[in-house]
Amino acid sequence: MKIAIPSSASDLSGRVEQKLGAAAYLLVIETEDMTFEAVAGPAQSTGSGAGIQALSLVLNKGVDVVLVDHIAPHIAEVLESEGTAVIERVQGSVVDVVDAYMRARHPAAEQQSMEKETEQIASSITWVEALNKARRQFGVLLPMLLGVIFLLGLFQAFISQEMLLTFFSGSLHQDTILGALLGSVLAGNPVNSYVIGSTLLDSGVGLAAVTALMVAWVNVGIIQLPAEAASLGWGFTLVRNITGFAAAVITGVLLNVLLGAVP
Amino acid sequence: MSDARKGHAGTKGWKPLRPWLFPLAIACLYLAGFLFAPEKAAEAARKSGIILRQIAVPIGVAIAMMVLLNRFLSPALAAKYLGKQSGMRGVAFSSLAGILSMGPVYAWYPLMTTLKEKGVSTFHLANFISCRSIKPVLIPVLLAYFGWLYSVTFLLANFIAALFVAGVVSLVLSSRKSKGASGNSLNQ
Hints:
By secondary structure, chain A is α/β, with parallel strands linked by helices. Helices cover 61% and strands 9% of the residues of chain A. A five-stranded mixed sheet of chain A has the order 3-2-1-4-5, with helices on both faces.
């Protein structure tokens, strides 16, 4: 089944735009294998008559269903007369609305047969297509990845280990949060966090702060935020990193208590 | 159907440049660095080069895995093993994958995108990332620095923290999703 969605992005990471005629892209998604085609929205190529042009696009692509927030009644009428279902007041991310639509359409009883069908579809993708898809997926993230790597270089060059030691005050709670903060900003091989952690311990910094730093080192990445968001979305990235930060602080305090090192 | 962007809308205007704004901003920082602290900026560039060399292998592995996943993994299969209903088997898979994955996390972002598109749940994506804090090859180093009692407790705490983070991410994002869905009229 083909679903058309006006989207803010040219891939599945976008959000449903309000109108067909005003969208940056029109995504035509094949629900069987979630492959998609991104077509330039009329808004980018024409000023007036955008709705009519969007209508023409949908009809040309042989779309079965249009998911949209709002659509002009005369456009919806034409689509429905051509056998294309129109569902309005759809909001959210493209992936989520397709998922919600498919769940609503395929109750549990039909789910298994659908899964079997889609499992078989994988073999229809050729090696060349798989390679091209991977190249595209990697290409989208490459600029962000390069930016993050060069930012990490800046951090490593400008912030020394001695500089880190001066941040700690001796207060359990303050140092634990500071440790988690440092672990969130610094990045690199976890071995570095062990070395820094050990040095901090030897310098009198508490176990809670050192543990929080080592947990946050891998779990939280402030510098990597843009790259993670480009890959998994800002919602996922922020919730994961904030929870990871909290987990680092809690783990630090817990280990401090468990190992009897409370001052 | 291919997923080629037939309209090529992205080639018009400034949109194709948008992904490069962040690296461009970093380039500006380097430019400022070379003007005001040339030695440090050169060191930063050298360190970035080292990081690039270090992630070459993990990136290569990730790309090879992406090709294999694109070729063989269907959304249904991904959902079956790493979807919301995959149960303990899914937890075991994502935890093990995170523990065994090597290199920095950003080397794995492209693969994460592929897995997300295939329908892998947010719980397992978050669990994969968090479980990367448990590194079997680094356990001897951890033991050498902190002793066995702290190391064992630390690794165990990391695993529990990974599940906690994954649980919270899944809970928050699914509640946001259900709020969004309640506003939709999809049950037609």
